[in-house]
């Protein structure tokens, strides 16, 4: 039986914290930044956690 493969895009997108929660980057921070306010860009800077309803699905993508 071959090994299960993880979804490579998910491995590049999500990270696991020490407690097992799934960390993600915030959206809307890649382009057209001139029209967004400084406050909005600042709040988008820090990573956040994936919602618990989606976290189980993402964890299966990561095979962790």
Descriptive report:
- The chain is of the alpha+beta class.
- The chain has one domain: Irregular (Factor Xa Inhibitor).
- Helix content is 39%, strand content 11%.
- The protein contains 3 helices and 3 strands.
- It has helices at residues 8-13, 38-45, 52-62; strands spanning 15-16, 22-24, 48-49.
- Strands 1-2-3 form a 3-stranded antiparallel beta sheet.
- The radius of gyration is 15 Å and the shape is elongated.
- The two termini are 19 Å apart.
- The relative contact order is 0.27.
Helix share, percent: 25-40%
State the CATH topology: Factor Xa Inhibitor
Q: What structural class is derived from the secondary structure elements?
A: alpha+beta
Question: Could you report the average pLDDT, rounded to the nearest whole number?
Answer: 95
Q: How many domain regions? A: 1
| Terminal residue distance | 19 Å
Biggest β-sheet, characterized?
3 strands, antiparallel
Rg from alpha-carbon coordinates = 15 Å
Q: Shape, please?
A: elongated
Count the E strands.
Answer: 3
CATH architecture type: Irregular
Low-confidence stretches: none
Q: Strands of the biggest beta sheet: in what spatial order?
A: 1-2-3
């Amino acid at each position: 039986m071959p090994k299960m493969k993880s979804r490579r895009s998910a491995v590049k997108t999500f990270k696991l914290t020490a407690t097992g929660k799934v960390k993600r980057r915030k959206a809307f921070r890649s382009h057209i930044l001139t029209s967004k306010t400084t406050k909005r860009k600042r709040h988008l800077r820090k990573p956040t956690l994936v919602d618990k309803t989606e976290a189980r699905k993402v964890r299966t993508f990561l095979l962790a």
